[in-house]
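TEACHING EXERCISE
Course module: macromolecular assemblies
Task: Read the component lines below, then compare them to the predicted structure of the full complex.
Student: A.B.
Group: 4
Components provided:
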Amino acid sequence: MFRYAVARLLGAIPTLFALVTIAFFLVRLAPGGPFDDERQLPPEIEANLQRAYNLDAPLTSQYLRYLGDLARGDLGPSFKYKDYSVAELIATGLPATLRIGLSALVVAVLAGVFCGAVAALRRNGWVDRVVMTLAMTGIAIPNFVVAPALTLLLGVYLRLLPVGGWGDGAFRFLILPVVALALPKIAYVARLTRGSLAEVLGSPYIRTARAKGLRGTTILVRHAARAALLPVVSYLGPTAAALLTGSVVIEQIFGIPGLGRYFVQGALNRDYTLVLGIVLFYGTLIILLNLLADLAYGWLDPRVRYD
Amino acid sequence: MAGWIRGCAMTDAVLPRSPGGRAWARLRRNPTAVAAMIVLGVIAGLCIVGPWVIPHSYDAVSWENILTAPDWSSGHWFGTDPNGRDLLARTLVGGRISLMVGLVASLVSLVIGVSWGAVAGYTGGRVDGVMMRIVDILYALPFMFFVILLMVYFGRNIVLIFVAIGAVEWLTMARIVRGQTLSLKRREFIEAARAIGVPGLTIVRRHIVPNVAGPVIVFLTLTIPEVMLIESFISFLGLGVQEPMTSWGVLISEGAQNIEEAPWLLAFPGTCLALTLLCLNLLGDALRDALDPRDGR
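Instructor-supplied answer key:
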């Protein structure tokens, strides 16, 4: 397993390389630049700025230089947020993004597994029908529709929760963004759990357990849960990635000072280094999360062999 | 086999012989699928025909009618937006764009994915290895960010939306098609075709591609809602379709900004988008069941 993990990490190197390369040239070949403001700069000053940020060098040499800086762990300075390095900006935005992302992940898995399990245990009953219909609807409604609707209902009409803002991450401010982010994923996890648990419950070894006279809960927790949760575990990596991406919109809606906002702002301002830094950061995170999910899968499923 | 057994139990109809026909017959007996198809047909029909029929134009600004609530008598059945434009007209026109993006971008992903997967699977060996390694690498990239970057840098061009989303969504299709191709490649009829000297590309085109149609159609049905979701996500961020042209994502974004004064601005386009996505998902699921007779669920 350790060797497998190392092999996977080594395998991520070409992926990261492709990521840097595509992102770098995509960002740089685009029209416009970080210093195109409404206010025209005198050409000498603009030339000086370009030189200061090494933007006057040929693109390939800038690329090689960026790679070199990257190898030393330096993401460079931001073009728009003066006196801040990209690493500092990421460090500023990361806590909020991670906080809502991780909370949404936990909520999605817990609520999704619970609903799915209830549906599977009452298969084809009315509970099952209701849960599955809700789940299908939950998948279909995008979170940027759910978020404003929930805000209107709980924030404006009922005045239960703040409509936006961050409030230094206080619990009350977290509820709406996390729920909006988690809802479609709850639905998806519920469907996955229901499908796999229903299949597992029909398998011979569960019948054996039942024939032995084990109690229902014991069968469920000890025997069925492990096998039934496998698809959920393998879905965790992509879910985490999707939650991170989805939080771009959620951060925008609720005015949360996270990475997603820096990204969109950076892209609009042609803040090359900031955009590149965030894309790289996300890419690395997604690769790591996928690796973790795969390792967890192997740990849960003894049939998986690493060779 | 199971399909055949189930066919025997049926008394009301003779089962068609071809696999496609059998799947279609099964699909037609699934009430959810039929309902989904009808709803989709109605939505698409309204979006295509509607803008010509209704009295208001989607881009006619009217200062007398700013943010009026839905009203039967004035003809603004869905109300009006902050510029006094008729929301019904805008929803229908936006629906055209959203549906078109969904279809065209999915077709782009279909063409790239099927050709890539079929060529990789059929050629095999080192070519296959390299091609699928490329897919693996691209898979791990945070593509939503690339789409956002593309939209920001190269302007809000609708053709670019098609290409950008299509270029993102073909990866899974390529994997599915390659898997199918690998198993098809060993079959006798392919061997026979090769034995009589049919060139490789022709085999791929005439024999491989038609035979992977089943899974591909299912996946295509599920790609369309995904693509529409990406488009509205981008439009929501203000990076998609440009005013006065609109899409459901743009309308939802406007609705979210005016939610306190004018909740209908979110309600109508949001419902349309959600309903369309729901129906496409249901249809995709039903198609998968119809094409896979082993699955008794």
